[in-house]
Amino acid sequence: MRFTKATNYALHTMLMLVSASPAKPVSVQKLAESQGVSPTYLSKILTRLVKAGMIESISGANGGYRLSRNKDDITFLDIIHAIEGTASLFECNFVHGDECSIQAVMKEAEKKMESHLRKAKLVDLLQKGANV
Amino acid sequence: MRFTKATNYALHTMLMLVSASPAKPVSVQKLAESQGVSPTYLSKILTRLVKAGMIESISGANGGYRLSRNKDDITFLDIIHAIEGTASLFECNFVHGDECSIQAVMKEAEKKMESHLRKAKLVDLLQKGANV
DNA sequence: TCATTCAAAGACTTTACATATCCATAATAT
DNA sequence: ATATTATGGATATGTAAAGTCTTTGAATGA
User: Fold this and answer.
1) Pick from B57, B29, B58, B53: which is nearest to B41 by CA?
2) Angle at which helices A5-19 and A76-84 cross, to 10°
3) Is the pTM value of this prediction over 0.70?
4) CB contacts < 8 A (A, B)
5) Candidates B8, B79, B125, partner chain A, best to mutate (most A CBs within 10 A)
6) Phi-psi region of A48 (alpha: psi -120 to 50; beta: other; left: phi over 0)
7) Is the pLDDT of residue B130 over 70?
8) Which nucleotide has the least CA–C1' distance to B4?
9) Residue B93: pLDDT band by 50, 70, 90 thresholds?
10) Mean pLDDT of all residues belonging to chain B
């Protein structure tokens, strides 16, 4: 299992939007070009972030995407869930009597990762002087 | 991203081998039947565990698979790494100046999950009376 | 020694999903 | 009006997971 490229695009795009002025939307052309991905494809990915309520899109000339929330409220986990979905990473399909004990361990492990991603915010990266 | 079904099969098979007598190997037919998977396919999966040195296979009549290590040394992470590989779950392909700050966060999150899976052992489930 | 029982391995198929591309449509600024 | 920009649907394409089939090789025991 691997995180999808779409998640990589989404995270990098969000970092750009967080560091950009919230007043001006950034066009998908610009966002796509800096990541070496086609604008139409990136647009599809960003639509998922729009539906998750994290960013908003402005059509027409000088349009593009911009944050629709406070920067500080945006965690890694929000973005990842918007792209990858919120389903558990491990599903035991067998019919045990009660809950599968293996699955219980796996879910606990997943929670550890999620907990870290929930604490991690994009703004924090900017403060450390990260290059987008 | 999801864990593969192969990981599910491997974990359940290992739990069976841990709970079985180490003297007698268990045939892949038996292991496969109890999980509703074809023997040839399960055999492919188990071969990876053999190569990882966790179990050993005995050919010929009364053959099968059995543990090749102490039960207590077998962690969830060992099994998962043997099946899914050890590559990082997240790879940023872009060329930043130095290491990608987003990737650093993702790797840290992954470590949290791995740390939990390294502590989790199959024997512990048996003591809790888990049904295989 | 010979048939039987078992795993290993290679070639192959099928399925599912990620990764796009293309085009028509709708919204908006100038 | 026209240029600019996102949206959505249809449609490839690529790749990995999931599974089958068949042959080979190793061990047992009669």
Assistant:
1) B29
2) 140
3) yes
4) 107
5) B8
6) alpha
7) no
8) D17
9) confident
10) 93
Helix pair angle (B5-19, B76-84), 10° resolution? 140
Within a 13 Å sphere around the CA of B36, how many CA atoms are in the beta-carbon half? 7
Taking Cα atoms as reference points, which of A80, A34, A30 lies closest to residue A54?
A80
**Shortest CA to C1' contact from B85: nucleotide:** D16
pLDDT digits (tens, 9 = 90+) for A20-42: 977 789 999 999 999 999 999 99
Architecture of the domain made up of A5-127: Orthogonal Bundle (1.10)
Give the whole-angstrom CA distance, residue A78 versus residue A118. Answer: 8
Helices (H), A20-84: 28-33, 39-51, 76-84
Task: Judge residue A96's burial from the number of C-beta atoms within 10 Å of its C-beta, 0-12 exposed, 13-18 middle, 19 or more buried.
Answer: middle
Could you read off the pLDDT of A66-85 as tens digits, one per residue? 999 889 989 999 999 999 99
**Nearest to A17, CA basis, from A61, A69, A62:** A69
Tokens, residue A40: 């139409």
Q: Is the pLDDT of residue A127 over 80?
A: no
Q: Specify the DSSP class assigned to residue A121.
A: B
As a whole-number percent, the residues of chain A with pLDDT over 70 amount to 96
Q: Which nucleotides of C are covered by protein (CB under 7 A)?
A: 4-10, 18-23, 26-30
Contacts of A40 (CB under 8 A, 6+ apart): none
Alpha-carbon gap, residue B10 to A7, rounded angstroms: 28
How far apart are the CA of A56 and the nearest CA of chain B, in angstroms?
A: 22
- Locate the domains of chain A by residue range: 5-127
